[in-house]
Write a structure and sequence with these properties.
The complex is a heterodimer of chains A (355) and B (298). Chain A is α/β, with parallel strands linked by helices and 355 residues long. Chain A has twelve helices and eleven strands. Chain B has a seven-stranded mixed sheet with strand order 12-11-10-9-13-14-17, with helices on both faces. A six-stranded antiparallel sheet of chain B has the order 6-5-8-3-4-7. Chain B has a two-stranded antiparallel sheet with strand order 1-2. Chain B is globular, with a radius of gyration of 19 Å. The chains are: A alpha/beta (355), B alpha/beta (298).
Chain lengths: 355, 298
């Protein structure tokens, strides 16, 4: 594995070279927060961020995405016949994505790229994307990536890991896609000996700063129906206003609705992020609603992430520990606390525990 | 007529051509049958525009499909035709919402779409060599019609022992597939027990009473070699289940088909889960034994 050194002053020119091959996306500072945007000519990502407000989910799985097109014009031979919508699947690169968000992609990949069905939109978008991760030297107090199968310098799923060393970046090339991108950027200046150790020291320092954690070791062994019937859901869901913020900011919430839109004689079928926090999500045509109460919906979200997913894939929780839902929940519902309640259920934990 | 662009190369599949699972097969409405006196139930006979699509749509009784209407959306509907019936698909649709209302207003010759087949099916391999009692109520008789036609096919009938059918509707005018039911009544290789909740029609010659009552009176006792397939409104299922238990049916011999709000139909969009199972992909068919280990979110 190769480590190269990048002069910070040359980053802008390097990105311009990359733009000949890739559409570039990166964190951009807005009036209030950072978000991923397309980086225009000459634009560099704003890398002095802690993390973006929204996760990087939308770069591979846009909040709304046209799936199919059709014509309602009966003078056309193919009227009312749906066709796959033309999309831009040209190479793109994300410069400055945090490792937790890359972990998020890997967790949802199990849903979109299955042995039975390949979601063509997600699979193509993901396949077209090269991920240049950015080591996280200052994790937030709400971050718990290290206990959620990720970490501030976690390399899984990354094509390149960028590390800020002050006057320059170190870039660890981690995959074939990463090599291609490094070649296109002209990142070929081998780092001095000891770079690996330098990165390791930074990684350890960053990991030590992740003070929060999530308890998951007993989740798999718990009985699903026992957790479902646990008394603490009343307390957990009490303050929830079903706003759906947690699901929108989450890098691993993947649910979507499918809707049709028509203008004149042209129609399209789109998919749009949906949220299990909303009553409409499960409403039957008959009026019956299997998850008609907010307790049922709050329970569904946590059971999905911390139990159903664990049971289905047997490889950890559906959470990358990015902490966005913790930071942005308007009523301070905290997945770490809920995980502790679920994990310790049956061991004498009480619902009103505050810690 | 051929349809452009129904298939596409998806990366990660080794360059293999894979059908976009969201892209419906185009079909034409060949016939519309108003089934019930309240005109809320219509059966749509659909024919594939591209003959090759019919082969790709190989299905088993118990599966469903997404009916797709441009500008309106999609609805998951059980397949009422049997794979032994060639050249068309049948769907019986209750008018409840946006898409089903739009469908009810469509005409013979109109173009729409079908996506599927989806989900699992009744456990035909396990049922082979055994007896079956089919218990249906109201408009939840569609995949049961598929199953009966399938079992009565001359190639299949020898594979099954006794076949009982208990089917109830509110009134004689609310019964689906009336002509076929009458024809099955005449046969000696199927035991029909048709019932209505109540009627003042003096010409009604079948049973009167709710499905659980008729089940109690007519269903064969469990012998470990008989499967019960139950489809109906929640209230019917609730009261039929104890009857079957009394008759000695074990939970793994009681088979049910569930419904939940669905969008994708292929286990991806997240809408229809019950615990870790998706009704669309892991179901819609579950045994009562399986359901007893799942949350009651249906």
């Amino acid at each position: 594995m190769k480590i190269v050194k990048i002069d910070k002053k040359s980053l802008s020119a390097d990105l311009d070279r990359l733009r000949e091959t890739y559409r570039l996306f990166g964190p951009v500072k807005g009036p209030q927060y950072y978000d991923f945007q397309l980086l225009g000519p000459g634009q560099t990502p704003d890398l002095d961020f802690l993390n973006t407000r929204m996760s990087a989910k939308s770069l591979v799985y846009p909040q709304s995405e046209v799936m199919l097109d059709y014509s309602l014009d009966e003078s056309q031979e193919d009227h009312h016949i749906m066709k796959e919508s033309a999309q831009d699947y040209s190479p793109r690169a994300v410069i400055g994505i945090r490792p937790c968000d890359v972990k998020g992609y890997l967790l949802v990949k199990r849903n979109f790229d299955t042995p039975d069905y390949k979601d063509p939109y997600w699979v193509r978008n993901f396949g077209a994307t090269t991920l240049v991760g950015y080591g996280c030297d200052e994790p937030c107090s709400s971050c718990f990536c290290t206990s959620a199968g990720s970490g501030p310098f976690h390399e899984e799923g990354l094509d390149v890991l960028l590390i800020d060393t002050g006057e320059s970046f170190l870039a660890k090339i981690l995959s074939e896609k990463g090599e291609k991108l490094a070649a296109a950027a002209g990142w070929d200046k081998r780092a001095a000996d000891g770079a690996e150790q330098q990165i390791d020291a930074r990684r350890q320092a960053a990991e030590a700063k992740v003070s929060a954690s999530v308890e998951t070791d007993r989740l798999a062994a718990q009985n699903s129906l026992d957790l479902y019937d646990a008394p603490f859901w009343e307390d957990v869901s009490f303050s929830c206003i079903n706003c759906g913020t947690c699901t929108y900011v989450c890098p691993t919430c993947w649910c979507f609705d499918i809707q049709d839109e028509v203008r004149g004689k042209n129609g399209k079928r789109l998919r749009i992020w949906d949220s299990c926090m909303y009553p409409l999500f499960t409403l039957h045509g008959s009026g019956h609603n299997p998850r008609g109460t907010k307790l049922q919906r709050v329970r569904q979200r946590f059971m999905h992430k911390l139990k159903y997913y664990v049971d289905k894939y047997d490889d950890g929780i559906q959470c990358s520990g990015c902490g966005r839902c913790v930071r942005l929940c308007p009523v301070n519902i905290d997945i770490r606390r809920v995980a502790r309640l679920m994990n310790s259920h049956g061991q004498g934990a009480v619902a009103c525990e505050v810690k | 007529m051929t349809t452009p662009h129904v298939e596409s190369i998806i990366p990660g599949t080794g360059g293999v051509t894979v059908q976009n699972p969201y892209l419906p097969y185009p079909v034409r409405i060949e016939e519309i049958i108003t089934e019930t006196e309240d005109r809320n139930l219509k059966t749509f006979k659909l024919v594939f525009l591209n003959a090759a699509d019919e082969k790709k749509f190989a299905y088993h009784p118990g599966q469903f499909a997404e009916l797709s209407i441009t500008g309106k959306g999609e609805i998951p509907i059980g397949i009422a035709s049997s794979p032994t019936e060639k050249g068309f698909l049948l769907f019986t649709v209750n008018r409840v919402g946006l898409v089903s209302t739009a469908l009810h207003n469509m005409r013979v010759g109109d173009i729409m779409g079908v996506r599927g087949p989806m989900g699992n099916w009744y456990p035909w391999e396990a049922i082979e060599g055994k007896s079956v009692v089919i218990i249906g109520g109201g408009f939840a008789f569609t995949t049961l019609r598929s199953s009966i036609v399938y079992m009565l096919d001359p190639n299949n009938r020898p594979k099954f022992k006794d076949i009982h059918v208990i089917y109830g509707a509110r009134t004689p005018g609310m019964i689906l597939y009336r002509d076929e039911l009458a024809a099955w009544e005449e046969r000696d290789d199927i035991h029909m027990h048709i019932t209505v909740d109540a009627t003042d029609d003096p010409t009604w010659k079948y049973n009167t009473g709710f499905v659980p009552t008729i089940t109690d009176q007519k269903a064969p006792p469990a012998d470990g070699e008989t499967y019960a397939i139950v489809c109906g409104p929640p209230i019917m299922i609730k009261f039929t289940q104890p009857v079957l238990e009394n008759l000695g049916y074990s939970y793994d011999h009681i088979i049910m088909s569930l419904e939940n709000r669905m969008k994708c139909g292929i286990g991806i969009c997240g809408h229809c889960n019950i615990g870790k199972e998706y009704v669309c992909k892991d179901g819609p068919v579950f045994t009562l034994e399986q359901l007893s280990r799942m949350p009651k979110e249906y």
